[in-house]
Amino acid sequence: MDGLVAGLPGTAAFQLFLYGALRAAHLPPPPLWTYGAVAAILLQGAISIAWAAAFSYLARTRANVAAHPYLSGVVYGAVVMVLMQIVYVFANLVHGWRAPGLAAELIANSIFFGLPVSLWVSRRIDR
Which of 10, 35, 66, 115 could staple 73 via S-S, CB 3.0–4.6 A? Predict the structure, then answer.
């Protein structure tokens, strides 16, 4: 249940920040936006729930992860970014990277996904 609650709040903010940052840098929109804005947010929501559930399991089985929510959240967001880039390549949604795009992805994954999920899950574990 923690994955559902933790994964949803940043989904729209994540996609909107990423879209705005990439467009401001004159780069193509995020890969999921090839399906449209609503579909991108819905797909990102489903993906976020799955990744948040994985983090919840990790935090419950590894005490150090829950004990340091700020660090573990940012690192987990970066790990998710790297793994999702691999998924995008295999799904043929990315045809090359540019530094501003990767920086925007890293910020979006770390700040709008990893950090909120980590803080939510670590607070739920502390109860």
Answer: 115
